[in-house]
Amino acid sequence: MQKARPKHLALWQIRLPLPGIVSILHRISGALMFAAIPFMLYALEGTLSSAERFAAFKECIAHPVTKLFLLAVLWAYLHHACAGTRFLFLDIHKGTDLKTARVTAYIVLAVSLSLTAIIGALTW
Questions:
Q1: Residue 4: its pLDDT value, please?
Q2: What is d(CA 103, CA 108) in angstroms, rounded to the nearest whole number?
Q3: Domain presence at residue 111
Q4: In a domain, 10, yes or no
Q5: What is the rounded distance in angstroms from the CA atom of residue 68 to the CA atom of residue 76?
Q6: Using CA atoms, how far apart are residues 22 and 92, in angstroms rounded to an integer?
Q7: What is the pLDDT of residue 6?
Q8: Number of domains in the chain
Q9: Does residue 24 form part of some domain?
Q10: Mean of per-residue pLDDT scores for the chain
Q11: Maximum distance among all alpha carbons in the chain?
């Protein structure tokens, strides 16, 4: 007997395990960092070009929306680094059993969010 396959995929009904969520967040963080490159390069160029542009940059990053954007990029960098380290260990077949994979996924989330909160609080 052949199973009836769904005609559409209900994404809100899929319950991913924690390692799957970390994997998807790793991809999202990489895309966010890639998308932020032009803005970061423009900001760097502006801060180095003149004193007036540096003052304008300081005024721009004082805005709460800009701070939230920079906080999101900070999280993306920290999560991508932590998850990337975890994936490097998985590539050499360390921590591939189910229990260890779940624990390391939890550690990646906890460390990246904790570091983001700490660094964000120190720089806000």
A1: 77
A2: 9
A3: yes
A4: no
A5: 12
A6: 18
A7: 67
A8: 1
A9: yes
A10: 93
A11: 74
Task: Give a yes or no: residue 84 inside a domain.
Answer: yes
Q: Is 70 helix (H, G, I), strand (E, B) or coil?
A: helix
Query: Nearest Cα to 109, choosing from 38, 11, 24?
Result: 24
| Strand ranges in the chain using DSSP code E only, listed in sequence order | none
Separation in Å, CA 63 to CA 6, 59, 60, 86, 96: 47, 7, 6, 35, 44
Which pLDDT value is given to residue 75? 97
Chain-centre distance for alpha carbon 96: 22
> What whole-number distance in Å separates Cα of residue 94 and Cα of residue 11?
31
**Whole-angstrom distance, CA of residue 124 vs CA of residue 64:** 9
The two three-digit tokens of residue 38, written as one number:
């032009």
pLDDT of residue 20: 94
In whole angstroms, how far apart are CA 102 and each of 1, 29, 32, 82, 95? 35, 20, 25, 14, 9
Which residue has 């904790």 as its token pair?
114
Tokens of 116: 């983001």
In the chain, the amino acid numbered 123 is T
12 token code pair = 């809100």
Residue 65 pLDDT > 80, yes or no? yes
